[in-house]
């Protein structure tokens, strides 16, 4: 078994609306203790919703940190009360794209930036689509528009640098690869070992236990 990287101490330095920043004192190989900053996150879901013509529902949304609108797959945070990932995906698809789906599969799981955050995302493939009444939207989402893009065109846009959102890039390329290879996708009850729990437990006042290391 390799080194365990035991946490010798921890402290919270920022507690915001959707993230918390903590600093852990971690024992390195050889015995040195080093500080590691960790951004805790609720986790998120995204949806590649594909219609019978092979088109993908995408949203164009303003992203303030980079100051422009991006073409993205519908996505959103898990509710801090412990919302199930599939329920969150169904909610986000309805809220952002006014869609529901009869068929759901896990397309890909992502650890979005594991060098400094526990943020992870589960990305679903949704098919058998049908339209819902338009949802009420506020803030950035009030400016959001839905665009339908053929999957092959979306791949081209990824490679041309026109779609840059990391989740969307991963979902589009995964869907294209799975389709060409005929790869069977996982069911919606597939284990998600990297689902974040630290921030949710913190907000619910529950003790957080580190995952077992194998």
Automatic annotation (TrEMBL):
One of its GO terms (molecular function) is hydrolase activity. GO terms for biological process: nucleoside phosphate metabolic process; ribose phosphate metabolic process. GO terms for cellular component: cytosol. It comes from Gordonia jinghuaiqii. The keyword Disulfide bond does not apply. PROSITE patterns: NUDIX. This is NUDIX hydrolase. The keyword Hydrolase applies.
